[in-house]
Every structure is written in structure tokens, then in C-alpha cells.
Write a structure and sequence with these properties.
This protein has 7 helices and 21 strands. By secondary structure, it is α+β, with helices and mostly antiparallel strands. The protein has a 7-stranded mixed β-sheet with strand order 2-3-18-7-21-5-4. Strands 6-19-9-17 form a 4-stranded antiparallel β-sheet. Strands 1-14-15 form a 3-stranded mixed β-sheet. Helix 5 packs across helix 6, helix 5 packs across helix 7 and helix 6 crosses helix 7. The longest helix has 14 residues.
């Protein structure tokens, strides 16, 4: 059985999945039922994930239900609101509250849990890729966090897009799990081990900002949902050096760089936002100009959305 992360109140997996635990490698029947339901009528176009709304801070019941259904199916949705370039950080905060999310990850660089993703120069942030215009490889957010502070939900809200570039690729992590398990169940077994990936300590000028942390790629939260920790970075990451783990990573990398219809691509526009249960994502490089300086707000939550 895949290891469980202890980030939420205990809920029996059997309470969520009628036919057993689909993430138990010894329970193939439960997996097959879950897999069939997951893939049945799964959206194949980014347009199918977009919900037109008025104000993200005050959703109508119909708007909420539409987003609810998409997140339940794909672990993500994109809202297209009418707030435009309004820089009010309360807009995405209040959006999250409507989905039961209040526990923000107040990480370094954020202000009360809301991080302004924009190009920064002249302070400590310019050493970190999210604050540059460089591309960011595939990852899930907070993979370097301690195991009891994993990121369940990730939201992005666009105030201003870049003049060019800044596209995100998106992939439901549950589909990555299906791809790997169908290819070889042993891939899931090794990627669920507690020493599958290790993040070295973050040391700056001799001061340890974050200790070394090891953990699994796949785990099951105590509420029964699948969780994934991953980064495609080649620096500041140490993968377990055994043949099966390395083979699993190769297959995953090939999938992330494939033309699968399940990999969506979108460049958020003013007033648009991504709501997700921390799906796999990347970001292309971009260029700003005087009229268009990219500014997105990022919100990370320790819980998943209340939509699922």
C-alpha cells in the first residue's frame, strides 16, 4: 500500500471509494473501477476547463457548481472573470474561501500567503526562478516542504500577462499515476517509498534555510486522495539510484514531453485564474515590456479544495 501523508483529519479510504482502495497495488479491482470512472468522458481540450464568471470573489451558485464539477473530475479548472487588471489580492483570497480554503502557506516571498509572481531584481528573490522570466520545468508546488505541510491546493490569479510567453502546461497528477501504473505497477511501488526523492538542504551564506528532506513521489492523504511530489529539476534534487526508480522517472519524463491530449496549455489573461489540487505544471519563459509586466498571484493551501 502506498504510504500516507498525515496532513489532514483521518478519513477511511473505504469511506471515499466504494470498491476499496484504488491506490493499493494489491487491489486491482478497485483500481480498475476508479480508473474507468476517472477516464470516462475526461476533457481533452483546455477550453473544456474554462468557466466564464463575473467576480471570482463572489461566485454565483451556478458558477461554483461548474468549477466544482471540473475540479472533481480533473483536479483543476480555469475561471475567466471580469476583474481585469484589478490588483486587489483579496480577489483570489475570497475565491479560495468559497471552496473552504483558509489555511494559506505563508512561504518566504509571500504577503499573508499571497505571493506576487513577477520579475524581481536587487533582492534575495532574484536568485529564485519564479521571480525571473526563465522557464520553469514540470513540478508540483511545495515538493520541498516537510511531509506534514504538503500543498494540497494551488491557485494562480492573473493581473497582467507578459508581453509574450509565460504559458503554463498542466497535467492532472492522477493521470500521471495511471500512466505509470499501467506501464509497470512497480514504478508506483518505488516512487511511493520514503526515500524516492531527496531535496538537499537550502544553505545561503552558511545559514541553513531549510533542512534536507526525503519523501515519496506518490502518497495517499489521510482523506483518501492521491498526492504527488515532483520536480523535473536536475539541480537541488537527488533521486534514489536504483534501476526501477530511474526507469520510472524516464517513463514519466517522456510522458510529460509527449503530445498527450491530457496535457493542457494556457496563458492566463487579466481576471483569469487557475484553481487546482496542485496538479503537475510548468511555465515557459517570457518577455515583459513597459505596458505588460507579468504579475500573477500565487496561493498555496495545505488542504485540497472543498470542491472534492
Amino acid at each position: 500500500m502506498i504510504q500516507k501523508a498525515s496532513t489532514h483529519a483521518t478519513t477511511k479510504i473505504s469511506d471515499r471509494y466504494r470498491y476499496g482502495n484504488p491506490f493499493d497495488l494489491d487491489d486491482d479491482k478497485a483500481y480498475r473501477v476508479w480508473r474507468e470512472n476517472k477516464l470516462d468522458d475526461y476533457p481533452e481540450k483546455i477550453e473544456d476547463l474554462i468557466v466564464e464568471i463575473n467576480n471570482p470573489a463572489v461566485l454565483s451558485r451556478a458558477e461554483f457548481n461548474a468549477i466544482h464539477a471540473l475540479v472533481a473530475k480533473t483536479n483543476m479548472a480555469i475561471y475567466a472573470g471580469k476583474t481585469g487588471n484589478n490588483p486587489d489580492k483579496d480577489i483570489p483570497v475570497k475565491f479560495g474561501e468559497q471552496f473552504g480554503l483558509t489555511e494559506l502557506d505563508d512561504n518566504a516571498g509571500s504577503e499573508e500567503g499571497v505571493t506576487s509572481l513577477t520579475v524581481v531584481s536587487g533582492d534575495w528573490r532574484d536568485a529564485y526562478i519564479p521571480y525571473t522570466n526563465k522557464p520553469i520545468h514540470w513540478h508540483t508546488d511545495g515538493y520541498y516542504n516537510s511531509l506534514n505541510q504538503q500543498i494540497g491546493a494551488l491557485f494562480l490569479h492573473c493581473v497582467t500577462p507578459a508581453a509574450s510567453g509565460g504559458e503554463n502546461a498542466l497535467l492532472d497528477h492522477e493521470l500521471a499515476y495511471i500512466h505509470l501504473r499501467d506501464y509497470n505497477p512497480d514504478f508506483i511501488r518505488v516512487l511511493s517509498m520514503g526515500d524516492a526523492m531527496t531535496i538537499p538542504a537550502n544553505i545561503n551564506h552558511g545559514k541553513e534555510l531549510r533542512p534536507q528532506r526525503s519523501g515519496p513521489v506518490f502518497s495517499v492523504m489521510s482523506d483518501g486522495h492521491l498526492h504527488m511530489r515532483y520536480t523535473a529539476r536536475t539541480h537541488s534534487i537527488e533521486w534514489k539510484d536504483d534501476a526501477v526508480t530511474q526507469a520510472a522517472l524516464k517513463v514519466l519524463t517522456e510522458y510529460l514531453h509527449s503530445s498527450s491530449t491530457y496535457i493542457y496549455r494556457a496563458t492566463l489573461q487579466p481576471g483569469q485564474g487557475l484553481v487546482s489540487n496542485n496538479v503537475l505544471h510548468d511555465r515557459s519563459g517570457f518577455e515583459d515590456n513597459d505596458e505588460n509586466k507579468r504579475l500573477l498571484y500565487r496561493l498555496r493551501y495545505f488542504s485540497r479544495t472543498g470542491a472534492t
